[in-house]
Amino acid sequence: MATARFRQRSSYINHAILIFMALTIILPLLVLAFNSIKPSSEFGANPLGFPNEIRLMNYYDAWVNGNYTQIFMNSLTLVIGTLILNLTVSGLAAFSLAVLNPRGIQTIVVGLYLLVGISIPAQLFILPLFLMWKSLYLLDTRIGLIIIYSALNAPFATFLIRSYMLQLPTELFEAAKLDGASVMQLFTRVALPLSWPVFLTTALIVSLTVWNEFLFAITFIITDEYKPISSILFTFQSRFANDYGLVSAASILMAAPIAILFMFFQRRFIAGLTSGATKG
Amino acid sequence: MPKFLTSINAISWYFLFPVIFIHFFVVMFPSVLSLLLCLTDWNGFGRINYVGLENFQELFRDRVFKKAVKHNIIWTVMFLTIPVIVALIIAYLLTGIKRGQLFYRLVYFFPYILASIVNCLIWRYIFHPRHGLGGWFENQGIDFLAKSPFAMKETALYAVAWVDMWHFWGFLVIIYLTGMYQVDDSLYEAADIEGATKFQKFRYITLPMIRPIFVLSLIIIIIWSVPTFDYVYILTMGGPAYSSEVVANHLYSQAFQRMNVGYASTIGVMMFFYVGIIVGFFAILRRMGWEV
Lengths: 280, 292
What we know:
The structure holds 2 protein chains of 2 kinds.
Chain A: H1 2-36, H2 57-65, H3 68-100, H4 105-118, H5 122-135, H6 142-165, H7 170-178, H8 183-194, H9 196-212, H10 215-220, H11 229-239, H12 244-264, H13 266-279
Helix pairs in contact in A: 1-12, 2-12, 3-6, 3-8, 3-9, 6-9, 6-13, 7-8, 9-13, 11-12
Chain B: H1 3-6, H2 8-37, H3 54-61, H4 63-95, H5 101-109, H6 116-126, H7 132-139, H8 156-181, H9 185-194, H10 198-209, H11 211-225, H12 230-235, H13 247-256, H14 261-287
């Protein structure tokens, strides 16, 4: 009896601590949400609370004044372009490492290469890359940024897909080979249909990192018309510095697609992001 | 076609080629260029003059660089302690509850998926002296925030770190939770029979059992702290008076505002060597059979 009561009380304390920590996250997010529907006249009297008068026009202003149709398309182009390029090259490489030649020298070579690769901070190569992109006319183009994002996400994607493909039963590939399938057919007809879950996870994580990416976005895109949402939001902060309603609405518009995807695919997001860190 | 070009070994190289090519083109080749450029005084346009190790000598005299290194060290130490301790406690508490666990996990993890620019915006508003918390206290007649903590020399670095930690610690919770769920329940049951307290169970069962994932998390934090850039750049640009300048920001302004290609490369090379030593050390430890 005594222990049961003790345990119950300690579980109330546990919940109290957990709720407190959850509030430190929820309350700042609520402030942002409230601000996004608050008329600018109300910010002085009511800086933190729910607005007395709801003004959804902030979203309209952000969309129109910020030229969001264009910016959303820019970010979406970057995401889709990166997904196509990155998943293709990473899928092929993962297939090679996991299925074609799992015990070959390739695994060691690529492993060593990537060990050096993860030691390289972006700052080491960003300036020479900038000058290279300038001379190749890739600077200030979306395709140039797509190539960069595909390369930056390639090690992570390759290893995530590889670890999944390693678990596929080898008998399937043997059987397909006996039926006369070519190597390419082994990839497109056997490996790809069986590994769609890992491609989905990888695609979600790559989309997230590309959508949120900041350093390369502000460096490699100079013209406003081509800027993705993260670097536009950065310029918004100074352009509409005191229009908190508009800037808050603009940031919610940026976060919304990611938040919605996260609600649907939380497990995949969490598994992908943590395994990217712990296995990479 | 000759046989060696169609062997399975050759074909598996063909499949690897695109990824190696693109990564080499974007990451490796410019990195090597940086390693060469750090020995020059190039400004991006004119002649490239070889200057030997002059850039490194200048770097060791550079007071802003020294300040930035100090800030990076403070940054790393903060991230190695505050979020790690909070996340360990929270993850441990989470393993003890059944109802609402998924809710807590989602909430704690959520800021990690938000863009740095959005997180910065939230906290710049909250810490604003006339809006946010400052404005709220002012309305109650209390003089709370005379100046934004991002605009004060004494607090700028810590305020920026606060925002980054706010966004990061939930990620650690999930990592530690994964480790804690792999601990065999029978160990806790045995400890219960022995009459162990909650803290003893944490200290003598949980902590040793999650050691590999724990050490890994510390290494990740050390490596990720080196190129930290977004939060400082967005919130303070390294100011006021370099009080929140970190190495990556120093490099960025040398590179893109002053076009000191050689000098910026030198800073990049220093960062690379530092991370390389840590990664190499970790790899050797692992090779020697130290199970981390």
